[in-house]
Structure formats: C-alpha cells, structure tokens
Amino acid sequence: MATVTPPVSDISAKPSSLDSIDAIPQEGQTINHDGKAYTTIREGQAYILVPHGIPTSTDPKSSKEEVERQQVFYNPIQQFNRDLSVLAIKTYGNDLVQRKTEKHERYRAKAQRLAERKKAKTVETKVEVPPEAHPQPDDLSLKKRKLSDHMIPGPVTSGQDTDAGKKRCLADVHDSNAETEPLRNPPSTGNGHTPRVEELQKPAEWKPAFTILDALSATGLRALRYAQEIPASTSITANDMSSKATDSIRLNVKHNKLESKIQANTGNAIAYMYSRIEKQGYDVIDLDPYGTAAPFIDAAIQAINDEGMLCVTCTDSAIFASHGYLEKTYSQYGGLPLKGEPCHEGGLRLLLHAIASSAGRYGMAIEPLLSLSIDYYIRVFVRVRKSPNEVKLLAGKTMIVYHCDSGCGSWSTQFLARNKAKQNRDGTSSYKHSFAAAPSADQHCEHCGFKTHLSGPMYGGPIHNVGFIQRVLAQLNEAERSVYPTYNRIEGMLRTALEEITYGAKSAETTEDGVTKQLGPIIPKSDPAAIDDWPFFFIPSAISRVLHCQAPSLAAMRGALRHAGFRVTMSHCKPGSIRTDAPWTAIWHILLEWVRQRAPLKNALKKGTAGDVILAKGSSFAVQDNANPNPVSSTDIVNIAKEDPSNPDNADLSAAETNQTKKTLPSYLGTNFPVEFDENLGRDHDRGKYVRYQLAPRENWGPMSRAK
Ligand SMILES: [Zn+2]
C-alpha cells in the first residue's frame, strides 16, 4: 500500500501549451489539472501522469531521495515485472475465456434440448400440466441462479457483481449463505422480464466475465495496462488504502479513457479482499507490495475464484533469501531460509509454501505456473483451484533441507510425508498418505563431515508449468518489441525457466527445429503429485573453492555430467549455475576427477577442512598403493597426481602405467563412472542466443525502502 507524497506542482516552468485531462493521451504531453501540471509517460499501451518535478527516467546519477519520489509515481525498473505480468495474465485469460465459453456452450445446448423436448411434449400430447408440477418459487430462483451462472447477456462492465449469486468456491468450506443469498442481478432484458432461453442464444453478444484485482495499486499503472493490453478482461479493481493514491488512479483512468473498465477503491487491501468472501471473487489477484506479500496471502485466497490466478511479488529479499533474520523469515513465510548461493530459489519455495498452506486450509490447492527470482525480488504466478483431494498431497510435496552451509555446500532434502499412488479396483488411481521416516540425513554432512543446518519447510514440487511458459512465450512472439522494451530479457528468462523443468528436452508441442507449434488456449494441468528431487543448483566455481582447485569451465562440468548420463541445465536465478539431476556423490566424483585429470592441487589442503575430508574419500589414488590401508589425505593426492598419466603434465609416463590406472576406475563413496570433460557436449547450441541474465542498470541498485 503506497502512500503518495503530495504532487509537486511546477506551474512556474509552464510549457507553451497545456492539455486538459480530456485530451487524447500522448507520450511527453503536459496535462494541467486542478492547477497542477503533469508529464505523460507511456508504458506498454497505457499512459501515466507524473507530477512535474519528479524524474521520469532511470538516471544513474539520481539521488536516493529522487529515486524514492520517482518510485511512488512511476518505477521504471519494475517495467519488466509489469510487461511479464501483462503477458502472463493474457495467457491465463485465454485459458479462462475458453473454459467459460465451453461451459456456456454446454449449458446452452442443454437448455435448448430441454426447451425442444418440452415444446414437442406440449404439442404432441396436449396434456394439461397438473398444478403441483408448476415450478415453485424456490425452484424458480434456483433456475435463475443457474442461468446467471452461464448467461451474461451483452457487454459486461462490472463482472464481479454480475453473477453475484454464483456458487463461490469457498462457499461450502465456510458454510456461507451464498447459496441462499437472493439473486441480486438476474439476467434481465431491461424491461422487467426474465429472458427466454431463445433470447439468450446469441453467442455473439455473450462475453465471459474476466475480473482482475490490483490490490495494492499505488497510481494504478498495472490496472491501466491490464485494461488496455488484455482484451479479454472485463472489469478491473484498483485498490489502495491512500485516498491520494486513489485520486491519482482516478485521474489516470480518466486520462486513459478507461472509466468503463477500471474502478478505483480506497481501502485496506486485506479488509477489501475479506469483504469479497461471500460475493463473487476475482479471476486474477495481483499482489505487488513494497516488501513482503505475506500478510495479504490469506485474504487473497478468500477473494480468488476457483481456477483463479494469484500473482505475487515479494521484495524483502533480506528476509526470504538471507539468514540474517531467520526468526522473521519463519514468522512471515512459515519456513526457514536457505543460506548461500541457492537462497533466492529457497525464497521462491518459501513463498509458494506460504501460499499453499494458506490455500490448503480452505480446501484449495495451488499449481505454480511460473516462479521467478528477478534482480532483488521474487514473483510467482500460481493457479488456485478448489480440490480437497489435491490438498491432501501437500505434506508429501513439502520438504525440509539439510544444508551443509559452513562446509562443502551440498544439501539433501526430505519430504514431510509420503504420497504413494495406488491403483483402485475400478481402474482409477488414488494416493495413500503416510508418515515419512525420521531424519533422513545425519547431523554431519556425508561428504565433508561438517555440521549441517535445517531449512524449510518449503514447497518441494515443480515451480513452473511447462505448458504455461510455452504459451507466454507464444504471446511474447506476437507482441510488438516497441511496446515491450523488456522483450529480450523476458524471452531469455522464460526459456531458462522452461529448461529448468524440461532440461532442454523437446516437448510434444515443439517441432524438430525447436519451434513451438500452434498451442491451444487451455493451459495443461501439471501432475499435482509431482515433486522436485533436485530443487537447487550448484556453482562450479563455488564447489572448486572447497577443494582449492582451479574451477572447471561451465562447459567442461556440464559435459562431464552429460557424458555420465545426467541431465543438465542452468538456473534462471544465477549466472554460472548448474541445475542437474545428478546426486552430490556424482558431482564430487566429477570434481575429484577434475583434480586428478586436469587440475592437480599445488598445495596440500589443511587437515580437517571440508576439501581435505572429501579428497580423502576418493579412492582414485589409493588403488595404486594397496599396501597402505590408511585412507589417503590431500598430501598424498598432490604427490600421486604428479605421477598420474592422464595429467597432461605427465605425458611422458609409460603406456604400461597408463593401463595400470585404467584397470580400476577411481571412485568416490562408491560412485565410479568414467569421467570425460567433453566441452562440446557441455555446450548448448542456443547459448548466447538469448539474454538469460541482466546486470543491474544502475549503481546501488536494489530494493527501496517503503515510500514515506
Ligand atoms: Zn559438506
């Protein structure tokens, strides 16, 4: 909820011409309204008024104070978030319109059949209907409600009120009186009579309601863009608790000529969303606060429709992605943060956990569609559906993480419960839910022996839906680059996110050349029981520091993993990251082979360090000295590596010695596949084709404190 500083008027520096608020909006135009002058900025297809004296572009030299003032009215850095949100909501909207239209068609066909049957019966038999067979008032109201469910004649201007009698997804959970609520707005032709089915059978006039709530709207830019750029949207509410903000929203709505589509509401977002509990909810709710969205989540769940989409931003990375205030992380998100490199991915999973556990209380299950860590904030798009059966899977999809944060950086995960699929006699399948075994990991890291720490609980299912990302990419493909200046970055980030799930495998919806085929509007549902066994990435340079060795190139490390049959991709969260389904024993085995084959240690590691303990677990060199039963230390490894024939420095060693080495494969904790650092195999052909990561556009760039 933004508080808005009073607009700075700067009439003294009056430009040559001032337009009134009724003028056609244009970029750079100066608007004079109520004695104040504003500059018009265009973003996407919407225009936003910024009072004179407030900077309107990203200037690296801007002072902190200037930036803060600017952020209240227009924050250019958040354009990526807004561009992405427009595309995501548009994609979701296509799905929603298709579903509602199909439902409407089914109802229409059924109503027509009934009408025809009734007509035929009346004509053929001419039997008088006995009085008790006439519909009673109660039946009538029920039928009316059913009609209103599906029939919204004519253009809809305030969708969330039009079908107020519709059974809300939460109604049966809360035992609300939604079912008995009088029908406030039955379909009417305007002359007082309820329309006959024939009158309603005009598909051209019918448009499904598609309602959006911008719950923390500030100056309303998101709402303006959704109204302009998402043609399927029928009604958008822009809410802010500050009346100055809603005044500013109304002014912008008027300027953009969107009064018929956007309603401004002054109120506390939480109270407003709870107030929708017994009324029609929203199809999309966007939470874009300064700081954390955690306090708004439960209320948003109350106000979202069944099969609706929540869009949630959190900018408090000091809480969700840092261990400095772990007690605060727990109270906000219901889980403990992850330390070190994958902390932002941990933050995404904590936020999903917070949403899933809130929703679960009301029999609502979540399906993450897209979850991104962007610069200093996180943004998730989540489909929410009423499904008590899917909610039962949640404990088995929620995990804790044992993280060796002070030693080698490896981690292992444990799910809180088990979901076991079983086949029923009638051929359907269901799940049996049971307790998980007590701690699955030792207190000490199995690799380096250091103490591990506990993180989570957090969401352990897949964090994206492949079909959704493919459809957003298709939307992007049709978008104009001039309207979406963040086009390249959106494309790069979406492709990277997609590969986190597919590992680059071509799906059935992709042709041989990697071109996405024509996609239907319906977003396929992900497997609700799926879990992510390898949720976090690692960074080759970071694990190389543990062994104090020169780091392998990304291509070499990826090539070695692929050569051994593991899948490899990168994480959108961090440049230089590797996301793989290889277990940590395989990763350390490869790195030990890197040391043996390519990067012999120059100095022995200090006794008792994480690297020293890991090296001692590798058998690679002990095989040459079977007489010595004691485990080798890194001192031995330095000496042996000097004699290793596969070390390019030792090319003059005899062939006999080389054969001797090949006889027994080096192993690490029982893992002994042959390791080849095949850089060609490790390279992706489209690498460099997309803007996958972006550097910060200005100095000291980061989250701003909440506007005063
Ligand atoms: Zn460790």
UniProtKB/TrEMBL annotation:
Enzyme Commission no: 2.1.1.216
Chain spans, region Disordered: 113-144, 175-196
GO CC, alphabetical: nucleus
Coiled-coil ranges (or none): none
Any one Gene Ontology molecular-function term assigned to this protein's record: tRNA binding
Record-level GO BP terms: tRNA N2-guanine methylation
NCBIfam families noted in UniProt: TRM1 (TIGR00308)
UniProt name for this protein: tRNA (guanine(26)-N(2))-dimethyltransferase
Organism the protein comes from: Aaosphaeria arxii CBS 175.79
